[in-house]
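FORM 7B: Structural annotation worksheet

SECTION A. Query
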Amino acid sequence: MSIDTNPNKMKTITFNDQELESMLMMYYEELAEAQEYVEQIQEIIKKLTGKPAIERQKRGRKPQQVVVPNTTPEAEKRATKVAKP
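SECTION B. Predicted structure
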């Protein structure tokens, strides 16, 4: 590794092939460890919730169903309750 310190230019760092290869391997190992960690966390979440970690639950209340009597002898109609302003 060498550092160019020419005052008229920005400082630059140059690496030889062996240094680049070792850095590349180090970062690939770090990436593999991080991916394994994410998989472990997803498994823990899956065990705690009983569902896959990626699925998200819908928020808020479900709309209430109100039974509206039908004037014909057919099946009952269901309508969603309208919220009051």
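SECTION C. Observations
The two ends are 70 Å apart (CA to CA). Residues 14-80 form one domain.

SECTION D. Sign-off
Analyst initials: ____
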